[in-house]
Amino acid sequence: ILAPNGLVDGGVTAIAIMANKVAGLPLYGVFLGINIPILLFTAKVMGKKFFIRTSYANVVTTLGLIYLKPFPAITTSELLIVLYGGVLFGVGVGIVVKMGGAIDGSEMLAVWMNKHFKVPISTFLLAVNAVIFIFVAILFSIEQAMFSLAIFYIVTKMIDFILDGINQGKSVMIISGKNKEIGDLLMKELQLSVTYLHGEGGFLGEHKRIIYCITNRFIYPKMKDLVLSVDPTA
Fold first, then answer.
1. Residue 182: what pLDDT?
2. Using CA atoms, how far apart are residues 131 and 77, in angstroms rounded to an integer?
3. Greatest Cα-to-Cα distance within the chain, rounded to the nearest angstrom
4. 10-residue block means of pLDDT along the chain (234 residues)?
5. Cα 27–76–104 angle (5° rounding)?
6. Comparing C-alpha atoms, which of 233, 213, 234 is closest to residue 170?
7. In contact, 83 and 150? CB cutoff 8 Å
8. pLDDT of residue 70
9. Which of 58, 53, 51 has the alpha carbon at shortest distance from 34?
10. Cα–Cα distance between 156 and 107 in angstroms, integer?
11. First and final CA of the chain: distance in angstroms?
12. Which residues face 214 on adjacent strands?
């Protein structure tokens, strides 16, 4: 829906579409050429499971770019492109992220920047995509940049809906007998701010120490894996 009409959503996919329209480069070639180095660069930070799931998502996406290319655009209506392109792409990315992976290299870099330089993920992604939309306006037209911005907005909202429903944040409470080990690990590995709460079991009345923290959709899968690696019953 997006590529045949020269509209983009942001990130590496947008760069691939622009390169295809301007220089005739294959979508899948640009997509893999950018994503693979970024994935290898960030793999240590993101973990083995993230690497495997992201690799799988990228292979499936690449096959889609190859085998769907011969098909003509379903519609040329800008309204339908924005709505259906944004919704479908957002749902796809949301499912991948919810399963602990990623499709776009910009998201991987955003998490890496957040871990090493404390740059907020949303700020990094906004900056990257702002530059991309400026290039869309220069290479194509201001109108196409405006449509692409609308698509990007719908995509982000659909991702939030798939991951969190109507809630955009994610607060996490962890109950475990190994709360000190888990808390230290989360602060060390993910630089999360951890608060310890004191609770009481309703049935036996035993006192428990509860870990409370707030995270985002990109960090949550990694956080979950770390917690379960220390205490599978948490």
1. 95
2. 26
3. 69
4. 80 91 92 94 83 91 86 84 90 85 87 82 85 93 92 86 68 92 93 90 84 87 92 92
5. 30
6. 213
7. no
8. 73
9. 58
10. 12
11. 43
12. 171
Residue 82 tokens read as: 């924005």
Task: List the structure tokens of 221.
Answer: 């899968």
Rounded CA-CA distance 30/12 in Å is 8
Q: What residue segments make up the domains of the chain, in order of their start?
A: 3-164, 170-230
For residue 139, CA distances in Å to 19, 20, 30, 78 come to 10, 12, 17, 18
State pTM to two decimals. Answer: 0.70
Q: How many angstroms separate the CA atoms of 137 and 234, rounded?
A: 50
Q: How much is the pLDDT for 212? A: 95
Nearest to 190 by CA among 214, 174, 164, 209: 214
Question: Which pLDDT value is given to residue 165?
Answer: 65
Classified as helix, coil or strand, 179 is: helix
Query: What's the CA gap between 149 and 86, in Å, rounded?
Result: 10
In eight-state DSSP terms, residue 85 is: I
Q: How far is CA 218 from CA 32, 68, 162, in A?
A: 21, 29, 13
Name the DSSP class of 195: E
Per-residue pLDDT, 168: 57
Assigned CATH topology for domain 170-230: Alpha-Beta Plaits (3.30.70)
Rg (CA), the chain: 20
Place of tokens 């329209």: 21
